[in-house]
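Reviewer comment 2.1 asked that we show a complete input and output for one of the modelled complexes. We chose the pyridoxal-5'-phosphate case, as it is the one discussed in the main text.
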Amino acid sequence: MKREKLLMTPGPTMVPPSVLKVMSAQIIHHRTAAFVAEYEQLEENLKELFDTKNMVLMFASSGTGAMESAIVNMFSPGDKVLAVSIGSFGDRFAEISSVYGLDVVKLAFEWGEAADVNKIKEILDADTTKEIKAVIMTHNETSTGVTNDIEAVGKLTKDTDRLFIVDAISSMGGIQIKTDEWGIDVVVTGSQKGLMCPPGLAYASVSDKAWEACEKSTLPKFYFDYKKYRKGFLGQGENPPFTPPVSLMLGQAEALKLMKDEGFENVFARHASLALAAQAGVAALGLELLCAQVNSSNIITPVKAPEGIEIGKVIKTMNEKYDVIVAGGQKHLKGKIFRIGHCGYADRFDLARGFMALELSLRENGYPVELGSSLAALQKSLG
Ligand SMILES: *Cc1c(COP(=O)(O)O)cnc(C)c1O
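Response of the prediction step:
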């Protein structure tokens, strides 16, 4: 018997059955009252999730498109920005900034570490002429499973002219983000991780300060031009301005309804308890986290590959024999770590299935495992 594959990846993630069902319906036209009603509800729920009074714009793109949108709408060529990177997605945001001709000051940390907020403060304090226009940063660095303290960084930029731009592609929906309270000007995310939808939709919230920056920005843009989207929200244009991925949006509307029914606070708490359980399971197997436990992500647990074990083979066994897909490492961490996702539509029984597959696969690939040890730890942790 073959089971449906269980994605314990950091995106795409599993999609709830009711979301799949909604998306399989006949298409409705996007310039109709029926669509507009769904769209407005979706927008309201997104605002609630982002914890913002500002507009949340939607694009048909992957999350990277929304990252690019933030750069092209906020800046002009030569603008100086501080790009903080703790891994591959932080590097990507810095690279997009460079590609568009920004003057990028890059502050990089070892992969597996969280950003040191004091270092960010030092750089900003030293910039007495206020040339640095923005801090660009990843909330949850999915490549290393480390979560940054964006609340603390927001305090450095909040009542200043500097913008704070955050990549929350893997954290939104899994880890609480208080967009307005923390002073985040642009938060970008995508549909396929914490938001329980297939890939293909991306979002950006835009603060008043960010709209002012948008007015001054001279970088070229067309599809991602925030002002085209705002016109619709202000009743001066069609909303959305271009044909939206209707089925995905209806799916996303349904997914957000599910999250609201559970309660956003409960959704975040579920992710936190799954992360603690996964950390306990890892420890019970005699394995180590890549990072300090306090920095370890609530949506993905990064684990060092055990000495002398080819982790790629373990991952392959988990997939091919036990139908559970976890992620390996990226770039220089390839072969050195694996990452267990517990993001979005995931619960304790998914985690148990994942750890059972992990135990069996580790054992079959030469790592000694006392069967059931991680499962016992999970159960104790989850109480
Ligand atoms: C997944 C991810 C991205 C890239 O998103 P795509 O949808 O693949 O373009 C960027 N940043 C972070 C933190 C991510 O987890």
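The CA atoms of residues 80 and 103 lie 4 Å apart. We note this here for comparison with the apo prediction described in Section 3.2.
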